[in-house]
Amino acid sequence: PIKHWITKPVVIMNMDLKSNFYLILLKLFFVESAINGSVSDNPNDVHFYLHPYPENPEQTIELLPWDKKTLKRFEFRSRNKTLFLIHGFISNSQTHMPVTLRNEYLCSGLNYNVITVDWGLLSLPAESPLTIPVILKSFPVVVQNIPRVSKRIAKFIEFLVDQDFSTLQQIHLVGHSLGCHVAGQVGHRIQIIRPGQKLGRISGLDPSGPSFQHLPLDLILDESDASFVDVYHTNTGILGYLGIMGHVDFYLCSHNIAVEVFAVTINQVVNACKCKHFKDWGLRIYCPCDDENLDIRAGELIPTNGTEGQYFFTTSPSIRLCVPFEFNC
């Protein structure tokens, strides 16, 4: 079995805002391996890795853009859903988000074409060790790379559609943190390339808030970017985006937990309930399900037809999903 541990949420106690912000950055953005080289701005440094072997998730095939032979050789399933996993700041294809979700999708039996988008060279700061000043200095540089990354992904999707390897409605983008806004910009670009058409689905796992809170909709993830957009907020107003973004918005507890919760929904049933007022979560009021609330399945298998609104997970407020899970694959 693959074990994933969900970290406890950061508790703010007698700490000024600046110190708390630094603490959260340290907890969320620490990378164990040394980081060498400079932050690239070259879109050719965005790579696409197909995971064709469920029994061996770590074995990947790099898909070179516009290389039809590789797609045919490894039996890219054109009739099946194609999933793009898009990591965020100071990450790459081997970090927590893409690895966790990749493993769960591959053992799910859903038979998706699972592709990890690696834009690590455009999201990693040059200096090592990774200190708070380095992080803060690098963040705006990485944000400026998002249009380059989204354009590269949109072109690759356009290639898949043009060559009949997929349709737009079969494509599902899952982004984390900055990767959510990458996915949103991809969805916006696709509509420019193909007027009147949209991607099938975008799932945003705790969209980044800093630098994005008041930007135009074409630069951030929003419900217009795909036929269905579901968003999982876990650090609203601090590192996460403050506000309603998708057709459906879910509210959780910690910045890292969005990945684990979405991963759980791939192979397990996780329900959420609808509250009458969005302010309930803003005030941290627990919202239990009752006969007047609509109970739905959250995550990967959410019913995408007609589902909308703001939802809250139905776990105990004392646990709030911050517990270990066993994924039996």
From TrEMBL:
Keyword set, alphabetical order:
Secreted
User: Residue limits of the Lipase domain?
Assistant: 44-252
Domain of life of the organism encoding this protein:
Eukaryota
* An annotated GO BP: lipid catabolic process
Q: Which Gene3D superfamilies match?
A: alpha/beta hydrolase
- GO function terms (MF aspect): lipase activity; serine hydrolase activity
Determine if Amino-acid biosynthesis is one of this entry's keywords: no
- Gene Ontology cellular component terms for the protein in this record: extracellular space
InterPro entries per the record? AB_hydrolase_fold, Lipase, TAG_lipase
In which compartments does the protein localize?
Secreted
Primary localization? secreted
State the family named in the UniProt similarity comment for this chain. Belongs to the AB hydrolase superfamily. Lipase family.
Which protein, by its recorded name, is this? Inactive pancreatic lipase-related protein 1
Report the source organism: Folsomia candida
